TrEMBL record:
PROSITE patterns: THIOREDOXIN_2. This is Redoxin domain-containing protein. It comes from the Bacteria. Residues 6-165 form the Thioredoxin domain. InterPro entries: AhpC/TSA (IPR000866), Thioredoxin-like_sf (IPR036249), Thioredoxin_domain (IPR013766). It comes from Litoribrevibacter euphylliae. SUPFAM superfamilies: Thioredoxin-like. Pfam families: AhpC-TSA (PF00578).
């Protein structure tokens, strides 16, 4: 099986999605005074681990914003599914929906089929986290094939603070060929 993955240091593709109570926007580009973008891809409303991770991430947005990083999240859920999910979410960053299977593939994400109709009604992306720098290139990438493996938020945020304050280069760019 061959899969595509985005490489560290590569340009991040444009990804325009609809949001909950926000205008459509390109999720690869920060808004306002921010110069970096954090894009979190989560499985969707059916995943209690995603709900917990997203709620925990809210406690870190002030620190991320303080170092110039805007935060957004997206899933393959429909608008109705996202609206239902908000009853269990307590987040302070914009949420977007409608990530297509082709978009999931273009981001190099793992994709799963639901185990039952009770889980969800569409293939969904497994977790992904992308940090896009001011040049629009991928500074940090974390892609998982299941919801149990995600970056520890304290380690991630303190690492990003260090990267930003020390002009730390993009890692993982050694080419194999």
């Amino acid at each position: 099986m061959t899969t595509f993955k985005l490489e560290a240091g590569a340009p991040f593709p444009s990804l325009t999605k609809s949001g909950l109570n926000v205008a459509d926007r390109d999720l690869s580009k920060p808004q306002g005074n921010f110069d970096w973008q954090m894009l979190v891809v989560y499985r969707g409303r059916h995943c209690p681990l995603c709900t917990r991770y997203m709620n925990e991430l809210s406690a870190y947005t002030a620190r991320l914003n303080a170092i110039g990083i805007d935060v957004v999240a997206v899933s393959g859920d429909s608008l109705a599914q996202l609206e239902e999910h908000t009853s269990r979410l307590n987040v302070n960053f914009p949420l977007f929906y409608g990530l297509t299977t082709e978009e999931m593939k273009s981001l190099g994400l793992y994709i799963s089929h639901p185990r039952s109709e009770q889980e969800t009604d569409h293939p969904f992306a497994e977790p992904g986290l992308f940090i896009i720098n001011e040049q629009g290139t991928l500074q940090v990438v974390d892609i998982s094939n299941n919801p149990f493996v995600r970056p520890d938020l304290e380690n991630l945020v303190s690492g990003l603070e260090w990267i930003r304050s020390n002009n730390y280069p993009i890692r993982g760019t050694y080419a194999y060929s």
